[in-house]
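Hi C.,

You asked whether I'd gotten around to modeling the 227-residue construct. I have! Everything is below, sequence then structure, no commentary in between.
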Amino acid sequence: MWVLLGIVVIVAGFLLRFHPLLVILASAIVTGVAAGLDPLTILAAFGKAFNEARYVSIIWIVLPVVGLLEAYGLQERARGLIAKMRGATVGQFLAGYMVLRQGLAAVGLTSVAGHAQTVRPLVAPIAEAAAEAQAGDLDNDRREEVKAWAAATDNIGLFFGEDIFLAIGSILLIKGLLEQYGISLEPLHLSVWAIPTAIAAFLIHGFRLWRLDRRLKRGAAATEEAA
């Protein structure tokens, strides 16, 4: 029963709002020690898990690539691109990105775009540039809000787009859960009925982006009147 101390560590760590990775690491170490494993065996288990999951390798590959692109002016070029597109707004740009994100997720390409790959180096800077074109100079709070809208658009596009793909884990999870209650559905049926949900999500989020454009426009008008 001592191995259950790892669960206690997780609960206590989350209640105290410690960093999740540190909580999980501490929990794994406590569980290993309670199970009578020596330190080298615990370290080997960590190494095997990381090597099989490849998460660490992916992080070490993505971050330097993004850093190099930014160092060579990727964000500046992205801002220049949106500056050439007269009349482009934050809402229009993010709505277009959401269509792209949903479309890629619907065919299983969930890793093509994402926060590290596209939002941080491309989508957020372009959205900021569009907001500056609409409302002039942005204060820090408004700039962070635009970044948050860029990240949220990516999340919503992925979440409501991936269920259209047959072989995604969420579809298999839903199918297995329904079968426990005697409801048998084919993955194709779940995917087909995910399409109206994705369309509704796009319309709702698109309306929110339209309101964002209106709010930026009103802010720009108020600034001009004050000047």
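If it helps when you're writing up: The mean pLDDT is 81.

Thanks,
B.
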